[in-house]
Write a structure and sequence with these properties.
heterodimer; A: Rossmann fold; 6 strands; B: alpha/beta; 14% strand
Chain lengths: 200, 376
């Protein structure tokens, strides 16, 4: 079983980001036979995300979303583009994760925006963020502007989705980056060993 | 005092009272802290401890000065810290200051080491905050040497070398103060505590218990690994916080403005959510006792329970009243914790028990030496 989780941060309801997330997950299920998918929209957790920023821990509402995102085999990120970048809610959620939570995780980046002029935000805003998080991001980003929802043929939204999901499937079928978060204390790190080595 | 220790720990924040808009002066707050410590002894608490900070809005930059003064005004309560900064203080100065304190209060003290949480303090004291864990480890190894060995030869990465250095004054009766290590994030600190058989303290204020359970269980395992006893015999301390009134509704009504504006968690979660998710109790004395007793279910039987009572701008009068209410339920807390505690769970080592342990160890060492001579 391959667990693929979509995290969307659209703020309107209904949300085109959530719609795009659902489409990507449908393609995931089509291309990855053993995929189990779920989708979480951050809108419902806006207050919880703010609380976590202030207290330093996710509360009982938010914890399952954090666990789903960090525990997924692959992550599909879908965010609207506001003012040339992702919304603060989306960044605040990521800020609350443990530092190495997304290390080595296969990630597909997708975004929605009011016009196609926002499309490069995936590459100049989202991609550097996930590079910092040391996630393994697929080369194709999926940007959907309003006219994409009426597109067809080569270059249409569905074909870009299929291409990006194909890349995600390829990563999931391979060895990944060989890295992941450390889920236990490293007893053999230098500082750990030093703790039990007083000077003579 | 046999059995579990109960006490209070102060962060030493000088904070505006949100209900009156009045901020105490540093002088008023320092004097209030002394009054709170004396009250803690009066209501029967076992421990008073103070934080250490080097930036406003906190006042306690010199814990041993404060504690020595309180020590002169009290007779019984144990004085401690929460925490003494092992990262940015020179370990030689820590050894000197706390040895002096130990003599002045006749051994009625211990201390808790921590690394602090204010990034600029490191450069202000000439250190690099990125090396916090390395500093903690090196400084503590040196501190132990300074207390446990008569003549110290030492060199390390972070401090000028010492050749032929002898700490003055030597620890009282040749026995160093008991040391706790406070940490909320760093497993290396738990390892350090376990290695030396020191106490481990989880402040237990901000995060849900699962986070602390993991660290404390790890410390208990490592304590046993290093041969100090079984895991359930490791020396564990916990923080906690409460606001009490005779009935819950009054407690919630009175505390809410302080909670909502608290420097640490204010303007975030609701009081109701936070009490549900963290060890904070805002309610009746009975609710407080019930919640506090659950700590031992989660963390195992432990040795020291410290509460934060003087924070978020609560005025002195309110804090003293809170201590009266705590004093009233103290016998119940003591009895309930004692009832569930196995006989082989030790108390926090104090000066007398450490002197006794040293005599046993010295006698054994002398015996081993004389045996060796016979066989030589």
């Amino acid at each position: 079983m391959t667990k693929v989780v979509a995290l969307t941060s659209g703020l309107s309801e209904p949300s085109s980001s959530t719609m795009l997330g659902e489409q990507v997950l449908a393609a995931v299920r089509a291309q990855i036979p053993d995929a189990e998918t779920e989708i979480h929209s951050l809108r419902a957790y806006a207050h919880d995300v703010t609380d976590a920023m202030l207290t330093g821990f996710p509360n009982g509402n938010l914890r399952p979303v954090v666990d789903a995102v960090t525990g997924a085999d692959a992550l599909v990120v879908v965010t609207p583009i506001f003012k040339a970048s992702y919304p603060g809610l989306f960044k605040s959620f990521l800020d609350g994760l443990e530092p190495d939570a997304l290390t080595g995780k296969p990630v597909l980046l997708a975004a929605t925006g009011g016009t196609a002029r926002h499309s490069l935000a995936i590459d100049f805003a989202l991609r550097p963020l996930f590079a910092y998080l040391q996630a393994l991001v697929v080369p194709t980003g999926i940007f959907a502007s309003p006219h994409d929802w009426g597109s067809e043929g080569k270059g249409a939204l569905t074909s870009r989705i299929d291409r990006a999901v194909g890349e995600l499937a390829s990563i999931l079928g391979g060895g990944g980056s060989g890295r992941g978060p450390s889920d236990d204390f490293d007893l053999f790190s230098d500082t750990f060993l030093a703790a039990s080595r007083p000077p003579q | 005092m046999a059995g579990m220790e109960f006490g209070i720990f102060t962060v030493g924040d000088v904070t505006e009272d949100p209900t009156t808009g009045i901020t105490p002066t540093e002088h008023e707050r320092i004097k209030a802290t002394v009054a709170i410590a004396r009250k803690a002894e009066e209501v029967g608490l076992d421990v008073f401890s103070t934080g250490e900070h080097h930036n406003p809005p906190f006042h306690p930059s010199s814990p041993t000065t404060l504690l020595a003064h309180i020590g002169a005004l009290t007779e019984r309560i144990k004085l401690s810290t929460s925490t003494t900064l092992i990262t940015t203080n020179d370990p030689v100065k820590i050894a000197e200051d706390y040895s002096n304190l130990q003599h002045l209060v006749d051994g009625r003290m211990d201390l808790m080491l921590g690394r602090g949480n204010t990034a600029p303090v490191y450069p202000w004291f000439g250190y690099d905050g990125r090396k916090a864990v390395e500093l903690t480890v090196e400084h503590y190894h040196l501190l132990r040497k300074l207390w446990d060995e008569e003549v110290v030869n030492w060199s390390g990465e972070f401090r000028s070398p010492l050749q032929g250095f002898t700490l003055a004054p030597r620890p009282l009766d040749g026995v160093a103060p008991f040391v706790w290590h406070g940490s909320i994030r760093t497993p290396e600190v738990a390892e350090l505590a376990a290695f030396y058989g020191d106490g481990y303290f989880a402040n237990n204020i901000f995060w849900p218990k699962e986070h602390y359970i993991r660290l404390i269980n790890f410390y208990r395992q490592r304590y046993a690994h290093y041969g100090h006893g079984d895991p359930h015999q490791a020396i564990v301390g916990l923080g906690g916080q409460f606001y009490l009134a005779r009935n819950s509704q009054d407690a919630v009504k009175e505390f809410r403005p302080y909670f909502d504006n608290a420097p640490v968690y204010g303007h975030g979660p609701s009081l109701e959510d936070f009490t549900e998710q963290t060890p904070l109790t805002v309610g009746s004395p009975q609710e407080f006792v019930e919640k506090t007793l659950t700590f031992a279910d989660y963390f195992g039987d432990y040795q020291r329970q410290l509460f934060l009572v003087d924070h978020a701008g609560l005025p002195l009068k309110t804090v003293l009243n809170q201590l009266d209410l705590l004093g009233e339920v103290l016998p119940t807390l003591r009895a309930e914790f004692a009832a569930r505690r196995p006989a082989d769970v030790p108390d926090t080592p104090d000066h007398a028990s450490r002197v006794a342990a040293k005599m046993v160890a010295d006698a054994k060492a002398a015996e081993d030496t004389s045996t060796e001579e016979v066989h030589a």
